[in-house]
Amino acid sequence: MSTPPAPRAAATTAAAEVVGLLADAGLSVATAESLTGGLVCATLVDVPGASAVVRGGVVAYATDVKGSVLGVDAELLARVGAVDPDVAAQLAEGARRVLGADLGVSTTGVAGPDPADGRAVGTVFVGVSGPAGTAVEEHAFSGDRATVRRSAVDAALDLVARTTRNLRADPGPARYGGPRTDGPRSREEAP
After folding, report:
1. How far is Cα 114 from Cα 102, in angstroms, rounded to an integer?
2. What pTM, to 2 d.p., does this model score?
3. Closest by Cα among 40, 37, 36, 41 to 51
4. Which residues constitute the domain of residue 145?
5. Where residue 167 falls among pLDDT bands split at 50, 70, 90?
6. Which residues does 131 contact at the CB level (< 8 Å), separation at least 6?
C-alpha cells in the first residue's frame, strides 16, 4: 500500500499535469487570485517548462482592485461582495483579457478565520474562462486558513485540467484546438 503524496507534492503533481495538458494543446493560462494570493500561479511556475504556457497572474486581494485592474463590475461588487460566483467568473474573464491568455482561472472565497460577505469560512468559488465560455464551481472546504487556501489551489488546478481535457476532446472551431477568433468573450455572449 502506497502512502498518499504530501499536500505540496500533490499540488506540484497536479500543476505538472496542467502544464503538460496546456502545452500539448498549445494553450496559455493566466490567473486572477484573491484568497489564494498568487499561490495558483506560483504552483504552476514551480513546474519546469511553465514559461511556455503561463502568461502571468494578478493578485486582486482588495475588492477595488478586482474592479480597477480586472474589470469586475463595481455594482456587482457593491451588491454581493467579493465572494460570489459571478465575481469569480468576471475575475477569470478579466485575467484572460488583461494578460492575453487562452484560459483565465480565478479564485475568490473566505479563508478565515471569520466569515466574509455573508459567506462561511471555507466557501470558495473557482472560475475558468476561455473562448468557449466561462464555468464556475463552488466549494465548501474545512480546515484552517492555510488548508482552505491550499484546497482552493487544488480545485483551481483540477478545474483547468478538466476544462483543457474536455475542450481538447471537442476540437470544433468554437473550442480549443480550432482556429482562434476574436469572437464573444463574455459569459452572456459565449456559446
Report:
1. 35
2. 0.85
3. 41
4. 7-169
5. confident
6. 102, 174, 175, 176, 180, 181, 183, 185, 190
- Residue 79: all three cell numbers together: 451588491
Locus of grid cell 502544464:
19
* pLDDT, tens digit (0-9, with 9 covering 90-100), for 77-127: 999 999 999 999 999 999 999 999 999 999 999 999 999 999 999 999 999
Sign for the CA dihedral angle at 148, 124, 157, 47 comes to negative
Determine, yes or no, domain membership for 179.
Answer: no
Q: Is residue 185 part of a domain?
A: no
- Residue (of 37, 35, 31) closest to 15 by Cα position: 31
Q: Where would I find the beta strands (DSSP E) of 25-163?
A: 29-33, 54-59, 103-109, 123-130, 133-140
Place of cell 489564494: 36
User: What's the number of domains the chain is made of?
Assistant: 1
Tell the burial category of 4 from Cβ atoms under 10 Å away from its Cβ (0-12, 13-18, 19+): exposed
Q: What H or E segment, with its residue span, contains residue 168?
A: helix 145-169
- Is residue 188 a part of any domain in this protein? no
CATH assignment of the domain containing 37: 3.90.950.20
Name residue 137's amino acid: E
Q: Is residue 49 part of a domain?
A: yes
Q: Is the dihedral of CA 65, 68, 73, 79 positive or negative?
A: positive
Tens digits of per-residue pLDDT, 71-81? 999 999 999 99
